[in-house]
């Protein structure tokens, strides 16, 4: 019996200790109209598996905040960021969303970068009536699913089905491909969603998918499935997945003498793709993206110039998306009737013709942007051609 | 009257109620905001996992590296049921069915593998957990890698404390029963235990099944608090996390597991910004404990309140 | 047929890697009855040493792999001296937990030092960048390299174990430690020697994987480590030929499950084989089952 006493006593102490940790009990710190500053929560993958995406988004966000604050803030109020690292862990993302909304009193939150982690924060957002915005959550059911519209969730990137469809059109119309092989990352909803939509569109318009193979994240050995695929006749390979594995698949495929064009989506967008695959393998590789540094739009040119000045490197798509996400939120905060979550949510939902570096867009009734897509072609590992499609 | 309260068996319920009441007070007054509550939920889930693994590894001496597998079964079953019946009875049905499913798989897996000894068993259970994870990764109904989202949240302080306390109390009662003593005797010397008529396989499987059952409950609570589940949550590293708690607290000490879970929760809150350092710390803790104090913080002792009890006795004598 | 031959060749490359790692597991298990979980981390360490040697010091393949083997050898011996030796008479479970701790320490310590992101070896040039067509098969120079290095190391290992005094001492200690000690064998240095050899082989495997797959990360050892252990168990843990056989067998299982079945169940099949072997023939394919002494 003694042991229960102690176990329970310890639990009591612990509960008290935990409660003691919160120096700011339940009442969120000053927010609303009388606040001095506008607090925006940043919930990104700054370490862990997809840290590259989170860090890149954050660079874009920080550049945007710097510019907004240098121009006098929003209606005279400066933006301050409450930045947390969710370590690429979904449970951590939920916990941090709770923390920033209930303890730090943010007016809106940006991130996480990946769809799964972003979705994990949406219930928290709905419960606390604070809008969450993602720059790069591309899964189809992020803002609206079988249970209806997620009122407080927004994104500024197109969806996977849109990308999958666009790449199928590209394969059929630009490359004149009739037969395709799909090698998908089945450990992510991203890979599965892309594969499904590519296949639907490709087969609807006269193409055939002759083989479908799957792998899981962190795999390095693809020779077996490539040897299997090599036996079939095909015109293109579609690899819905991320650069870490796609780079290795392309390398191993080229080494086995498979020289068909390779198609992918925005998951290819990383300098690591080149390191992994090597320049020689990256010919005849095309992927859809949100943005290309080859774009000649004056807005994009200015962004590239500012970004280079601050970070001394070329911005990639995630930098651009982070930059746009922050400006998108700032734009809505400026238009909101009151400085609270619900008013900002309404302002976000009524955004029209927002001019971003990833293209200008309006928000539709499902809280998705209506925007165009870029298909980038690689030659010796370097961006060589771009074409913009869709609107 | 006071003395009767200290009688065996009754005290624990009073203390459970006390902790519940204090917690409830903190929730109602708003001191325990959502962020702190989510930390507390993780803590309680870890306590249930560690206490149940301690039954298998600490008390029965069967080294299992597959606890995350049982947790995932409980989680998925609970999620699937409570998503279809999004009510409190649905949630309870889900948690219990999930726990039973985990126990059932524990039985199926345990029967053949528990014949293995020591490190072979460890490797076999590890393989089993990986297989379970790969199956969830490929099943349609669990939505594969993307996992389940939008699981209704029913876990509040009441359910959380109810499940945590019942798990601790039930496992502790089991250990103090004749069955529990048989389990401990297997840990001490399996051959000697069999020679005095203890059916080793039966008790090993029993402990394994009970451990799996409570791991399933922990999984159900996890699903119902964090809104989502996916196979990557239940990899090898989660089994290791649970093992670290058990080893740190003391192999064969329930209160040790509880204390270690709390300690590690505090440490990981402080090391929140440095996830790699947290893991390095875990690693160093494991090695140092094994070399310096292989029995863990508490050894096989339970935290005792002799002081309090002694005080109670004196009062008794004085009163009569 | 061409496809089948190509798959065979694919499985030889991956099987060689498993065999090299499995050798370290099996030798250590043979001599101190410990699943050395840290072995997989030493393999990862070897891959990083090769990476740094090639990228920052511009060393060629041969000096890099030798350097990796040397450093891994030292690390392996240190692990044994610091973490396992104090526990030589402790419960098996305590040593196993320590091994897990050491493995986590190396992996997450590495992650802290070099960050979690994937790194890639510099592109190979000259012979190592070539590939050859043999009938319908395409064989890369790197695949030949893996096979050649594996064969060379195994031959050397066989000579060391069978003919040298230390090799004989290793075999004696693994059969009966106390008897070996009574015969005047220095058990401590024999154990150190075993760790040194096993770790050097793991280091070599790390560099080969780095060159072949071109992608390394701090947790790269986890899964191959487990599979190599499965290989060692399959062949009969404690037996050197068993580890080699097991390595190639697991490599073949993986390639053929992926090539002719569903690649998603590749790992599950490997683990299922492990469980079946453990239950049906715990001594492994080449092992003799012995009764446990009371």
Q: What's the average pLDDT of chain B?
A: 85
Side by side, the strands of the main sheet of chain A go 9-8-10-11-12-16-17
Structural class of chain B: mainly alpha
Radius of gyration of chain A: 23 Å
- Secondary-structure content class of chain A: alpha/beta
The largest pleated sheet of chain B is described as: none
What this model shows, in words?
The complex is a heterotrimer of chains A (391), B (320) and C (294). With 391 residues, chain A is of the alpha/beta class. A seven-stranded mixed beta sheet of chain A has the order 9-8-10-11-12-16-17. In chain A, strands 2-1-3-4-7 form a five-stranded parallel beta sheet, sandwiched between helices. In chain A, helix 5 crosses helix 6. Helix content of chain A is 43%, strand content 20%. In chain A, helix 2 links the parallel strand 1 and strand 2. Chain A folds into two domains: 197 residues, Rossmann fold, CATH 3.40.50.2300; 130 residues, Response regulator (Rossmann fold, 3-Layer(aba) Sandwich). Chain B is mainly alpha-helical. Chain B has a domain of 223 residues. The C terminus of chain B is likely disordered. Chain C is mainly α. Chain C has eleven helices and two strands; from the N terminus they run ααααββααααααα. Chain C starts with a helix and ends in a 14-residue tail after the last helix. Helices cover 73% and strands 3% of the residues of chain C. In chain C, strands 1-2 form a two-stranded antiparallel sheet. The chains are: A alpha/beta (391), B mainly alpha (320), C mainly alpha (294). The interface between A and B is large, with 53 and 61 residues.
């Amino acid at each position: 019996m003694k042991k229960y006493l102690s176990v329970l006593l310890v639990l009591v102490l612990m509960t008290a200790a935990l409660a003691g940790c919160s120096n700011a009990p339940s009442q969120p710190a000053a927010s609303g109209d009388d606040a001095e500053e506008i607090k925006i929560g940043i919930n990104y993958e700054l370490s862990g598996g997809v840290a590259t995406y989170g860090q890149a988004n954050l660079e874009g966000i920080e550049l945007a905040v710097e510019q907004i604050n240098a121009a006098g803030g929003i209606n005279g109020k400066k933006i301050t960021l409450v930045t947390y690292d969710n370590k690429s862990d979904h449970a951590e993302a939920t916990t941090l969303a709770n923390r920033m909304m209930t303890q730090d009193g943010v007016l809106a939150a940006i991130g996480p970068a990946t769809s799964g982690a972003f979705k994990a924060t949406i219930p928290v957002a709905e419960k606390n009536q604070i809008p969450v915005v993602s720059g790069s959550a591309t899964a189809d059911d992020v803002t609206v699913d079988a249970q209806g519209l997620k009122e407080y969730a927004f994104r500024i990137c197109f969806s996977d089905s849109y990308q999958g469809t666009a790449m199928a059109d590209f394969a059929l119309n630009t490359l004149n491909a009739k037969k395709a092989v799909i090698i998908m990352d089945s450990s992510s909803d991203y890979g599965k969603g892309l594969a499904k939509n590519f296949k639907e569109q490709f087969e609807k318009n006269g193409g055939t998918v002759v083989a479908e193979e799957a792998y899981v994240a962190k795999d390095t050995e693809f020779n077996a499935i490539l040897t299997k695929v090599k036996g079939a006749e095909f015109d293109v390979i579609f690899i819905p997945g991320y650069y870490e594995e796609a780079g290795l698949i392309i390398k191993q495929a080229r080494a086995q003498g498979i020289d068909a064009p390779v198609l992918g989506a925005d998951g290819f967008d990383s300098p690591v793709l080149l390191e992994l695959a090597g320049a020689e393998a990256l010919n005849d590789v095309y992927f859809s993206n949100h943005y290309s540094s080859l774009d000649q739009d004056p807005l994009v040119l200015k962004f590239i110039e500012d970004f280079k000045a601050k970070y001394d490197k070329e911005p990639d798509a995630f930098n651009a998306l982070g930059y746009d996400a922050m400006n998108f939120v700032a734009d809505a905060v400026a238009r909101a009737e009151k400085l609270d979550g619900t008013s900002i949510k309404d302002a976000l939902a009524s955004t029209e013709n927002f001019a971003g570096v990833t293209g200008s867009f309006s928000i539709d009734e499902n809280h998705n942007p209506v925007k165009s897509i870029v298909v980038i072609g690689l030659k010796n590992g370097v961006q060589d051609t771009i074409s913009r499609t869709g609107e | 009257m006071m003395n009767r309260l200290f009688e065996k068996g009754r005290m624990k319920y009073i203390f459970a109620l006390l902790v519940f009441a204090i917690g409830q007070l903190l929730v109602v007054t708003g001191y325990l905001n959502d962020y702190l509550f989510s930390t507390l939920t993780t803590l309680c889930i870890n306590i249930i996992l560690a206490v149940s693994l301690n039954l298998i590894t600490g008390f029965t001496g069967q080294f299992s590296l597959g606890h995350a597998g049982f947790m995932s079964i409980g989680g998925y079953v609970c999620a699937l049921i409570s998503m279809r019946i999004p009510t409190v009875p649905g949630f309870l049905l889900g948690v219990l069915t999930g726990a039973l499913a985990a126990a059932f798989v524990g039985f199926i897996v345990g029967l053949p593998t528990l014949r293995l000894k020591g490190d072979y068993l460890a490797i076999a259970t590890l393989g089993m957990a990986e297989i379970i994870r790969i199956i969830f990764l490929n099943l349609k109904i669990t939505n594969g890698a993307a996992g389940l989202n939008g699981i209704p949240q029913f876990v509040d302080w009441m359910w959380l404390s109810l499940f945590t306390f019942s798990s601790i109390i039930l496992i502790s009662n089991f250990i103090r029963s004749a069955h529990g003593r048989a389990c401990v005797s297997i840990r001490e010397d399996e051959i000697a235990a069999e020679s005095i008529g203890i059916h080793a396989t039966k008790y090993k499987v029993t402990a394994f099944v009970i451990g799996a059952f409570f791991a399933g409950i922990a999984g159900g609570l996890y699903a119902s608090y964090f809104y989502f589940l996916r196979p990557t949550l239940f990899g090898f590293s989660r089994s290791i996390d649970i093992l670290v708690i058990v080893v740190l607290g003391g192999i064969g000490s329930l209160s040790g597991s509880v204390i270690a879970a709390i300690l590690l929760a505090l440490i990981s809150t402080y090391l929140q910004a440095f996830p790699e350092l947290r893991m390095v710390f875990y690693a160093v803790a494991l090695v140092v404990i094994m070399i310096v104090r292989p029995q863990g913080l508490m050894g096989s002792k339970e935290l005792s309140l002799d002081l309090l009890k002694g005080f109670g006795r004196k009062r008794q004598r004085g009163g009569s | 047929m061409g496809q089948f031959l190509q798959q065979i060749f694919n499985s030889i490359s991956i099987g060689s890697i498993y065999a090299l790692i499995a050798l370290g597991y099996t030798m250590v298990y043979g001599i101190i009855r410990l699943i050395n979980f840290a072995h997989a981390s030493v393999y990862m360490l070897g891959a990083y040493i090769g990476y740094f040697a090639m990228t920052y010091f511009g060393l060629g393949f041969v000096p890099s792999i030798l350097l990796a083997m040397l450093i891994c050898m030292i690390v392996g011996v240190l692990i044994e001296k610091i973490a396992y030796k104090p526990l030589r008479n402790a419960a098996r479970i305590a040593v196993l937990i320590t091994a897990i701790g050491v493995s986590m320490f190396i992996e997450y310590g590495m992650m802290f030092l070099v960050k979690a992101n994937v790194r890639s070896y510099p592109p190979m040039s000259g012979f190592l960048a070539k590939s050859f067509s043999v009938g319908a098969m395409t064989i890369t120079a790197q695949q030949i390299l893996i096979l050649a290095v594996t064969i060379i190391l195994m031959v050397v290992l066989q000579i060391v174990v069978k003919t040298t005094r230390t090799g004989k001492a290793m075999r004696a200690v693994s059969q009966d430690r106390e008897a070996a000690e009574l015969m005047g064998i220095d058990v401590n240095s024999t154990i150190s020697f075993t760790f040194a050899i096993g770790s050097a082989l793991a280091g070599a495997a790390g560099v080969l994987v780095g060159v072949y797959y071109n992608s390394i990360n701090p947790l790269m050892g986890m899964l191959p480590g487990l599979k190599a252990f499965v290989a060692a168990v399959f062949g009969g843990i404690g037996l050197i030929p068993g580890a080699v056989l097991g390595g190639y067998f697991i490599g073949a299982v993986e390639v053929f499950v992926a090539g002719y079945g569903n690649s998603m169940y590749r790992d599950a099949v490997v683990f299922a084989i492990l469980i079946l072997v453990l239950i049906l023939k715990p001594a492994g394919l080449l092992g003799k089952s012995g009764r446990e002494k009371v």
